[in-house]
Amino acid sequence: MIEAAPTEKRLLRLDMMPHMLCPGCGHGIVFDAMLRVLARRYETLDGVAFVAGIGCSSRVVGYVDSATMHTTHGRPLTFATGLKLARPDLKVIVVTGDGDGLSIGGNHLIHAARRNIDLTCVLFNNEIYGMTGGQLAPTTVPGAFTSTSPEGNHEEPFDAARLVEAAGATFVARAQSFRTRLFEEVFAEALDHPGFSFVEVLTDCTEYFGRTNHLGTGADLLFAQGREEPAVDADLATRPTLRPVPEKRTRPTLATGVLHRSRRSTLEEAMGLVGGAR
Amino acid sequence: MSTLQLVQGNEACALGALAAGCRFFAGYPISPSSEIAEALARALPRRGGVFIQMEDEMASLGAVLGAAMGGARAMTATSGPGFTLMQEHLGYASLAEIPCVVVDVMRGGPSTGLPTSPSQGDVMQARWGSHGDRATVVVAPASVQEVHDLTGTAFALAERLRTPVVVLFDEVIGHMREGVTLAAPPAGSAGRPVPGEPPGPSFRSAYRPNAEGVAMVPDFGRGYRFHVTGLMHDERGYPTSDPATVAALLERLERKTDAALDALPPERYRLEDATVVLIAYGITARMARAAVDVLRERGIPAGLLRPRLLWPVPVAALEEAIAPAELVVAAEMNRGQWSLEVERVAGRQVPLAPYLKAGGSIISVEELVEHVLAATREGVLA
Q1: Where in chain B is the domain with CATH 3.40.50.970?
Q2: In 3D, which of B227, B190, B223 has the Cα closest to residue B205?
Q3: Could you tell me where in chain B the CATH 3.40.50.920 domains are found?
Q4: What residues of A are in the B interface, CB distance below 8 Å?
Q5: What angle do CA B118, B124, B129 make, to 5 degrees?
Q6: For chain A, which residues make up each domain, given as ranges?
Q7: More confident residue, B378 or B312
Q8: What is the mean pLDDT of residues B141-156?
Q9: ipTM more than 0.95?
Q10: What is the pLDDT of residue B1?
Q11: Nearest-CA distance from A77 to chain B in Å?
Q12: Is there a contact between A266 and B45 (Cβ–Cβ < 8 Å)?
């Protein structure tokens, strides 16, 4: 049972507002849900540190009144690894995006999962590079138009959750910006999990993905998520292109909830940094 | 207490780091620097420290910076190709003012180059390798003893100035064994500047500078809530694109590194009456020093200026050494890098005859002497 927590505002840096997210963007919905979970657990965030990379999703940590670190593109997990090993007492939360975490930072993601270091990593997956103007991501659905796939995307996307599970993560979950209660549940479980916990959350980029693919407004995108509709609009094949559009593809209906959970020694336990004498 | 030991250069680097309080090392294997990681992999866990081998050099320096924000004195070590991969995080550390030490044991480049041969080819990379206008602090030890000692100096400067400090030496020094005296480090290393005011919800001054121009950034997890970013930022640490704020930030970051000049002046050897001035650093300075003695025996009034700090350039010391010179010979194992700084300082008034050697072998005393004699015979020396 999740209770409403209207006090999450106290965890915000209101003097850094207004925020830089676009109207209709799903990231704010997810960020709000994160804050609700944190507000139920923490009076202040002094025992927590947030580490983020580069991109729209990563910018949200700047609005949290905690120890926050906005690092380099793709590398937040490396900073978080050093911070956690130096300060195992801190709860370290990593915020990344699909470009940050799966493309430029994909190597760090699988190695953090392999090490089972006790971090919670939330990956906002909006299937596109929003901050740089809507380029192709390693998560973009096949056929989709982006500013760097003007003929439609020719590539298969990563399944982030399966990738991270295969790499050794001991907690893997997927949620949607449409189902915030589900996100709150799995994020809370991820925070409780000892070891590398990974939450992929599907959100929507209204300005670039939605507009470029004629998918409507933020609300349209959100409810399409709820109805598990195809990610790419039906009129895609009618868009003017230089070559024939590849066979129309849709985002497969992705399983949500906790997808994997197991228990093995965390890196800090194995190194003797926590849990008794060294 | 001090002990005399036969130590390899890379091991001396690890010992110097430990003596300076290094408690965190993250690295990735690469010749000819790997012995530093190996030594610290053995030593750090026994001393309550942390060693971790990361998946690449970008991750290594990222982890170092995360640990440094957690309060640890932290270091990585690498060589040319890995140093290239670390350049982005060196820029981040400079702008976010996170103290760290990065050791680059130089090998021949470009590319994979000469993995186990010496070179001094990373001097300009150490200065300009990361994008943007960035002040850098680079120390250049010339012996195993100095590798030990200057690694300690690098930590002291990194912490005091809250900036990355690069320790730059080469494969020969890294793999050479020499007798060294491992003295306890000098007391009084003040550590990193931190805020004077207590933490609290109103704390909004993580990037307020002290009198030396160094931001007083708290460590994470000490009750201070603040933001660290690689974006241009104001004294709160909040992103800004205000041109005046950004210009002042860049100016402050450059100015604060001047303190390194006083901390590490160049060595002057037989310069008192020298009109033939050799300028060399690192392993090359060892041969240049011997060459000065040979030249003196042959009646040439030679002397050596040996910078131990390559960046920022010790301009005043260079000017002083060059002023009475009738011939200036900058020697280095590359196709001309720090000798360009000598040329810049000397201007066109002083005859210059740099001795440059790239290819993977060190400069010998004999060839350096011959070069100076030839330069004098050819009338460069009037």
Answers
A1: 1-264
A2: B227
A3: 266-377
A4: 13, 15-16, 44-47, 49, 51, 62, 65-72, 75, 78-87, 89-90, 107-108, 111, 271-273, 278
A5: 110
A6: 6-242+249-270
A7: B312
A8: 97
A9: yes
A10: 59
A11: 8
A12: no
Q: What are the tokens at B41?
A: 């992999």
Question: What letter does residue B233 receive in the DSSP assignment?
Answer: B
CATH topology for B1-264 is Rossmann fold (3.40.50)
Bridge partners (DSSP) of residue B309 are B139
* Chain A partners within 8 Å of B62 (Cβ): 71-72, 75, 78-79, 81-82, 108
State the Cα–Cα distance between residues B42 and B30, nearest whole angstrom: 17
Q: Which chain A residues are within 8 Å of B224, Cβ to Cβ?
A: 67
φ and ψ at residue A52, rounded to 5 degrees: -135, 160
Question: Using 50, 70 and 90 to split pLDDT, how confident is the model at A215?
Answer: confident
Q: Which residues of B touch A90 (CB under 8 A)?
A: 70, 220-221
Listed residue (B272, B270, B309) closest to B290, CA to CA: B270
Nearest neighbour of B66 by CB, restricted to A16, A83, A278: A83
| B183/A12: higher pLDDT | A12
B63 contacts A87? CB cut-off 8 A: no
Domain B266-377 bears CATH identifier 3.40.50.920: yes
pTM: 0.95
Q: Going by C-beta distance under 8 Å and a sequence separation of 6 or more, which residues neighbour residue B347?
A: none
Nearby residues of B128 by Cβ (< 8 Å), 6 or more positions away: none
Question: Per the CB < 8 Å rule, is A49 touching B220?
Answer: yes
Residue in chain B nearest A60 by alpha carbon: B227
In angstroms, the CA B353 to CA A34 distance is 65
DSSP single-letter state for residue B148: H
CB contact under 8 A, A81 and B88: no
Q: Tokens in use for B286?
A: 């060892």
pLDDT of B57 reads 98
Residue with tokens 């009109």: B275
Q: Which of the two residues, B3 and A147, has the higher pLDDT score?
A: A147
User: At B349, is the pLDDT very low, low, confident or very high (cuts 50, 70, 90)?
Assistant: confident
CB burial of B317-341 (b: ≥16 within 10 Å; e: otherwise) equals bbeebbeebebbbbbbbbeebbbeb
Mean pLDDT across chain B: 95
CATH code reported for the domain at A6-242+249-270 = 3.40.50.970
Q: Beta strand pairing status for B309-311 and B137-139? A: antiparallel
Mean pLDDT for B266-276 is: 97
**Residues of B with Cβ-Cβ distance to A75 under 8 angstroms:** 58-59, 62, 89
User: Which residues, 6 or more positions from A232, have their beta carbon under 8 angstroms from its beta carbon?
Assistant: A141, A143, A144, A213, A215, A248, A249, A250, A251
Do A82 and B67 count as a contact with CB atoms less than 8 A apart?
A: yes
Hey, of A17, A48, A59, A85, which one would you mutate to test binding to chain B, going by the most B CBs within 10 A of its CB?
A85
Amino acid at A162: R
Q: Which two tokens stand for residue A246?
A: 């590849």
DSSP 8-state assignment for residue B359: S
